[in-house]
Amino acid sequence: MPRNKSTPKIKKAKLTINENTYELPIYNSTEGESVIDISKLHSQAKLFTYDPGFTSTASCESKITFIDGDKGILRYRGYDIEELANKSDFIEVVNLLIYGDLPNKEQLKKYKKLITRHTLLHEQIINFFQGFRRDAHPMAMMVGVMGALSSFYQDTLDINDPHQRQEATRRIVAKSSTIGAMAYKYSIGQSFVSPKNNLSFSENFLHMCFSNTAEEYKISPILAKAMDTIFILHADHEQNASTSTVRLAGSSGANPFACIAAGVSSLWGPAHGGANQAALEMLEQIGSSKNIKKYINKAKNKKDKFKLMGFGHRVYKNYDPRAKILKKICQKVLKHIGIKNDPILKLAMDLEKIALKDKYFVEKKLYPNVDFYSGIILRAIGFPPEMFTVIFAISRTAGWTAQWTEMIEDPIQKIGRPRQLYSGNKLQKYGVKRSKKNTR
Ligand code: SDX
Questions:
Q1: What is the pTM of this model?
Q2: What is the pLDDT of residues 297-324, one digit of tens each?
Q3: Cα(201)–Cα(207) distance, rounded to whole angstroms?
Q4: Catalytic residues, which ones?
Q5: Residue among 231, 223, 201 nearest 398 (CA)
């Protein structure tokens, strides 16, 4: 039984198969779609439901993030994303996502200090980086080192101890930025730069990435604010692929560092968090507005695997509210840096204009998503495309740890174990001649 006890208007769904009718309870959401509880369907009707990609399946009950894809709404614990982007900061949003409401001034000051004091890494972790090739993708280092943290912070592995769970979430969020910065420094052959406790989370990340032994990076308030807003916008997004990966890994009782490493792995894919790198590379491949039509036709051609990266979304069938905010930040950052007419931004805006008028994109409700503009901003700040998904991962440690905590504390939580539609061989006798088509 879900924890949200509000009763829906229609209390039950009726499923009739042959002469049998099964009654399935319906539970009400506080916002958005209600759900049909099918958990007893197999025991009653000896049937599974079938929903590849979980397009119509709620995997859990959650109070953290609400998305209305048709209206382009995104809220963290009920607060609208645009309001948070304008008025809050990333560490306040981390606290909001994990604890459920905005902290007061005192609580926020204390929480920021706790996070800041966890940004340092155990000195021996540096050895992990030496094991990577210099040209390793920074996400490979994020996956590897995040998982390795479980061997250094063994006093926060007991998932049944609320204090250890809480400490683990702080370590994961805080240390993700240091690991991300170290992955960047390692990939460009520069020595690591330690965090500074007098800097904010976002200022610290820029400092650890762009200062070096010869020169301190001069932190621009505009770029630090842009960085912080990017962290806020990517912090959580309901039950997306990487968050579902973290929940599934956590449902077996795996330690928090291992679960977050699993989330980093899933986010790396170009259909998910890797799309920001892919979108910028696509824009560079298109090169100029005169080639837009050719690439839009490629994206529409079923025989061509090409997709317009940064477009489309499983849930948003309207403009992704995060893309709207990022588009404004894009113009502000480029203006601040003195790039009057960045050809890539101009190309992106032309591509958006043409795509949004194209019948195919209109019919399939394919709008720019969070990854369409983020890459242009990060490139303008000075990051190479390989770092874009690392930055997404740093931000999403907030949502992953909040969702993981909610799952562990859910009284009805059990190990996730989906079933299948089996379409393989029936019973075979060993040694029977195999059919010709079995070429090895
Ligand atoms: C993120 O889930 C989240 O919340 C994720 C995220 C988060 O914050 O965690 O929001 C972050 O991952 C954003 C999405 C970033 N990915 C991309 O930009 C990659 C390009 N987009 C596509 O791969 C696609 O749109 C997905 C993966 C994002 C969504 O895919 P769906 O929901 O499975 O939709 P689909 O692939 O079934 O597409 C429906 C139709 C298909 O055509 P038909 O088979 O119906 O003819 O639309 C087409 C697709 O071919 N389509 C595209 C397209 N995206 C979908 N055609 C061209 N270009 C595209 N970008």
A1: 0.95
A2: 999 999 999 999 999 999 999 899 999 9
A3: 10
A4: 313, 371
A5: 231
Q: In the numeric block, which tokens belong to residue 39? A: 């958990």
- The number of residues making up the chain comes to 440
- Cβ of 370 below 6 Å from ligand 1: yes
Any ligand 1 atom below 6 A from CB of 314: yes
Which amino acid is it at 384?
P
Please report the atom of ligand 1 found closest to the CA of residue 273: 12
The parts of the chain modelled with pLDDT lower than 70 are 1, 3, 5-10, 434-440
Q: How far apart are alpha carbons 43 and 206 in whole angstroms?
A: 54
Residue with CA at minimum distance from ligand 1 atom 37: 314
For residue 182, which amino acid is it?
A: M
For residue 269, report the distance from its CA to the centre of ligand 1, in Å. 12
Give distance in angstroms: CA of 407 to centre of ligand 1: 27
Cα distance between the two ends of the chain? 49
Segment 108-151, tens digit of pLDDT: 999 999 999 999 999 999 999 999 999 999 999 999 999 999 99
Q: Calculate the CA 371 to chain-centre distance.
A: 11
Which of 276, 297, 314 has most ligand 1 atoms within 8 Å of its beta carbon, as the pocket-test mutant? 314
Centre of ligand 1 to C-alpha 279, Å, is 13
What pLDDT does 431 receive? 85
Task: List the one residue out of 287, 343, 281 whose CA is nearest residue 307.
Answer: 281
The sheet carrying 20-27 orders its strands as 12-17, 20-27, 35-36
